[in-house]
Amino acid sequence: WVQEEAPDVLCLQETKCAVSAVPAEVRALPGLPHQFWSSAKDRPGYSGVGLLARTEPLNVTYGIELTQNKTKIPSKLAPGLAPKLTPKPPKVHPPRLRFDAAFRAFLRRLDAQKPVLLCGDLNVAHAEIDLCHPAANRNSPGFMQQERQGFTELLSAGFVDTFRHLYPEARGAFTFWTYLGAARARNVGWRLDYAVASRRLLGDLCDCKIRSAAAGSDHCPVTALLAV
């Protein structure tokens, strides 16, 4: 699939392996010779991101971003909260709220230098249209009001959800499906994965596609097309 898509930059989340354990077939992907991997050193197999690029970047900050000639490209996996069986509605955990505020400030600093394209699993469905059963998930992690408000505040800080900007009424456009209950086959999903761009990149935005036919994970890829 990667070879057919032929991206200039490939952002990966949830790699769940140390740098030394990146599979040989990924290392050998044609057209993406510049590879940068970041994983949790103190928690092997936890989280992790990777950035693969067709051309050599000007700069790479491990754990957060790649800088191309005209654009900064952070690849991020936002912290989420696993559902718990509890008689009370769960609250958004403080680390998530701290992350949202700190990451928003970080992106604004990046945006002051160069336009930003943020790619990744942000662990939030922003609006009711972004998940299959909004009414049943009002108190579910990933759709709680504080999480959604955090995403709204990110957009208000000068950024755009590129898919929703181009397809404001598109329904059933999901990027995550639980493995339970044949959810993917029935398209009972959530849109948790985003390409978020600096507002001033809108003139260069060509398209944003959800590649739901690409199998192999409980998430599917999202492709952002920009003329930069």
From TrEMBL:
Cofactor annotation comment: Probably binds two magnesium or manganese ions per subunit.
Positions bearing the site annotation: Transition state stabilizer: 123
Record-annotated site: Interaction with DNA substrate: 219
EC number(s) given by UniProt: 3.1.11.2, 3.1.21.-
Cofactor(s) needed: Mn(2+); Mg(2+)
CC annotations in GO: mitochondrion; nucleus
Single GO molecular function: DNA binding
Superkingdom of origin organism: Eukaryota
Signal peptide positions on this chain: none
Keywords carried by this UniProt record: Cytoplasm, DNA damage, DNA repair, DNA-binding, Endonuclease, Hydrolase, Lyase, Magnesium, Manganese, Metal-binding, Mitochondrion, Nuclease, Nucleus
Protein name from the UniProt record: DNA repair nuclease/redox regulator APEX1
